[in-house]
Write a structure and sequence with these properties.
The structure is a single chain. By secondary structure, the chain is mostly beta strands. It has one domain: Lipid/polyisoprenoid-binding, YceI-like (Lipocalin, Beta Barrel). The chain has 1 helix and 11 strands; from the N terminus they run ββββββαβββββ. Strands 1-4-5-7-8-9-10-11 form an 8-stranded antiparallel beta barrel. The longest helix has 8 residues. The two termini are 31 Å apart.
Length: 183
């Protein structure tokens, strides 16, 4: 009699104290405004035998947005942008993981902003893995993607007198994620 051995799958939780969800967007056609979401949560399910079968779900709290200017942050929380009162979370759920090489991956998934879901692909770099001072197994990842904010119903803008717009459509997203293995 033989028994099938289930693939080794591990669960990892995002460590919000050591992770960053950041964005950058052109302002007034010439400068770049950067911001971050201070509250992120999520879970990785890593298939150790076949990493391409791994997955992630994550969410950020829209009210935790910070650009360093409170008036701008309030505007970003308003209905002109994220409408945090009605849509308090931005979510991501992976649908496909592709290996590029030993340290680089492509992760495609469903990004939801303002209740609008679009497929987005992140370029992911595996930053390493190790045991911390408390005996916990940790791993790090960096990921980047570009989205068009209007694809998610984030349409507000203003015109500049000399020509152009106040806020560019393209938003760069950068993730620096630390994850801790359960168990």
């Amino acid at each position: 009699m033989t028994t099938a051995t289930a693939p080794a799958t591990s669960t990892w939780n995002i460590d919000p104290a050591h992770s960053a969800v950041e964005f950058a967007v052109k302002h007034m056609m010439v400068s770049t405004v950067k911001g971050r979401f201070g509250q992120v949560e999520g879970t990785f399910r890593i298939d150790e035998a076949n990493p391409a079968k791994s997955s992630i779900t994550a969410a950020v709290d829209v009210t935790s947005i910070s650009t360093g200017v409170e008036q701008r942050d309030e505007h970003l929380r308003s209905d002109d942008f994220f409408n945090a009162a009605q849509y308090p979370k931005l979510t991501f759920a992976s649908t496909k993981v592709e290996r590029v090489d030993d340290e680089n991956w492509k992760m495609t998934g469903d990004l939801t902003i303002r209740d609008i879901t679009r497929s987005v692909t992140f370029d992911v770099e595996y930053d390493g893995r190790g045991i911390d001072a408390f005996g916990k197994n940790r791993a790090g990842f960096t990921a980047e993607a570009k989205i068009n904010r209007k694809d998610f119903g984030v349409n507000w803008n203003g015109l500049i007198e000399a020509g152009g717009v106040v806020v560019a459509d393209t938003v760069k997203i950068q993730l620096n994620i630390a994850a801790v293995r359960e168990g």
